[in-house]
Amino acid sequence: MERHASILVIEDDRAQRDALQEILEHEGYEVETAPDGDTGLKRAAELPFDLVLTDLALPGVDGLEILKYLVRHKPQTLCIIVTGYATVKSSVDAMRQGAYDYLPKPVDPQELRLVVRRALEHRALQEENRQLKQQLKKRFGFANIIGGSEPITKVFDLIRKVADTDATVLILGESGTGKELIARAIHYNSHRSQGPLVPVNCAAIPEELLESELFGHERGAFTHAVRTRIGRFEQASGGTIFLDEIAEMSPNLQVKLLRVLQDRSFERIGGTKSIKVDIRVIAATNQNLEELVSQGRFREDLYYRLKVIPIRVPPLRERPGDIPLLANHFLEEFSKKKKKPAKRLAPEVMEALARYTWPGNVRELENLMERLVILAEGEVVTLEDLPQRLRGGQSLDFGGQSIDFGGEGINLTRAVQEYERQLILAALERSKWVKSRAAQLLQLNRTTLIEKMKKQKIAPP
Fold it and tell me: Any idea what DSSP says for residue 146?
C-alpha cells in the first residue's frame, strides 16, 4: 500500500466527509477536504493530489465536471466517484469518461480501503511506466547515436525529418551498424513514443513459427494451439513494430505483410475475423533487397511498400572520423558498468583503430572496448593490449590488397589464423550467430564451422 499519498475528498455532507477523512488518515494518507465542487475544483487545480475522491452530486460544480477537469488537465491524478444508489448508472458512465472506480453510499470502510489502495497501486505503476518511457526516450534519443562525420550527420537529419510521421521506414546497413538503435530513436522521438515498440528478428524465429509469432492464432488452429494467442502486430497496436532481417521472410509471409502495409488488417491463423491495427512499420535488413527482387526471392511490390523512407546506415569504415568518439564513449560506459578505473587509448592505439576495416562495424568496436576495460592493465591502453588483427604493421585487409609487413615481417601461420577468425566472426555477426546461415556464407559444412569455432575459441557474445 502506498503510504503518505495525498488525497482530496470532495463531499457536501459534513458527516460523510469527516468519516471518509478519518478512515483514510487512519490508513496513513494525507487527506484534504472540500465541502463543495467549486472549492474542490480550485484545490485540485492548485495542488498535486495523487487521488481525488468526489461525490457525484454536488452543489455548484458537480463530480462529473471535476472528473473531466482531472482527465484533461491532471491525468496523473486518479478519480474515484462516490454516489448514492439512485445514480449508480451515472457513476458507471463517469467510469467510461475516465474515473478509476466508484463507491456506492453508504460507503463501506473496508471497500473504501481496498479501492483506494488499488487505485494508488495503479497510479504508482502508471508513474513507474511513465518514468521508464522517459528513460527509454533519453536512452534512445538522437544524442545516443554517436558521431559527427558527414555520413552519420546525414542519417541524423533524415531521422529527425521522419520520426514524427507514420511513414514506413526501411533501414539498410551491414550487421553491427546500429540499425535497431536507429529504429528505437525513430520510435521514441515520435508521437507514438507512449505506445509499445515491438521488435521481431525474422531470422531468429523458425519459418514455421514466424507466421504465428507475427499474426497470432486462434484456439484449435493447429496441433497444440490450446488457446488463442495474440501476435506481435496486435501487441504493437498504438505503437511501432520493428521487423529486423526482413529479407529472411518467406514468400507466403511476404504476401500477408503486404496486406498489413496496405490496409493495416489481417486474420489470425485459423481465424476468419479481420483485425485492424494502428501501427507504424519499421523494417531493416543487411542484404541488398533490389538484388533479391531481381532474383525473384523478394516481392517487388513489398519492396516498394517498405521503401517509403529508406535510411542507409554507413559502415564504420566509411566514417573513420567517428572512431575516436565511439571508442571513448564505450570506454567510459563500460568503465562505469564494470566499476573499473577510467582508461584512455594511447595515440598509436587510436591510429590502429583508424586503420582497421571493422567488418563487425560499431558492434565489433563496442565489444573490443568492453574487452579492453576488463583485461587491459594500467591506465593507458597500449598496442600490446590489442588483438593481433588490430596491431600496426599487420593489416589484414587482403580484399583491398593493402598488406604492410612492418619492420619484422608477418608470422604467416598466425596471420592466416587471425584472418580466418575475422571471417568467421564477420559471418556470425551477419547471420546473428545462426551457425547454419554463417556456414552457408563461408561455404562450409555446419560441423566444420563448429570445429573451427572450437579451435579458435569463438563463443557467442
Answer: -
Containing H/E element for 369? helix 361-375
Q: Could you tell me whether strands 51-55 and 6-10 are parallel, antiparallel, or unpaired per DSSP bridges?
A: parallel
> CB neighbours (10 Å) of residue 307?
15
Structural domains of the chain, with CATH: 6-132 (3.40.50.2300), 140-314 (3.40.50.300), 316-389 (1.10.8.60), 411-461 (1.10.10.60)
Has residue 27 got a pLDDT over 80?
A: yes
18: amino acid identity, one letter: D
Which residue reads 545516443 in cell numbers?
Answer: 144
Question: Are 186 and 163 contacting, i.e. CB atoms less than 8 angstroms apart?
Answer: yes
The mean per-residue pLDDT over the stretch 63-78 comes to: 89
Taking the C-alpha atoms of residue 358 and residue 30, their distance in angstroms, rounded to an integer, is 60
What pLDDT is stored for residue 396 in this prediction?
45
pLDDT of residue 238: 93
| Angstrom distances, CA of residue 10 to CA of 4, 59, 99, 237, 305 | 19, 11, 15, 38, 55
pTM for this model (two decimals): 0.59
Q: Residues 55-64: pLDDT tens digits?
A: 988 888 888 8
CA 219/CA 313 separation, integer angstroms: 42
Q: How confident is the model at residue 76 (pLDDT cuts 50, 70, 90)?
A: confident
Q: For residue 324, which amino acid is it?
A: P
Collect all residues with Cβ–Cβ distance below 8 Å to 291 and sequence separation of at least 6. Answer: none
Bond into 206 cis (ω within 30): no
| pLDDT above 50 (res 3) | no
Contact 370, 330 (CB under 8 A): yes
Q: What are phi and psi of 281, to 5 degrees?
A: -110, 125
> What is the distance between the alpha carbons of residues 233 and 276, in angstroms, rounded to a whole number?
10
What string of DSSP letters covers 249-284?
A: S-HHHHHHHHHHHHHSEE--BT--S-EE---EEEEE
**DSSP β-ladder status, 197-201 and 344-345:** unpaired
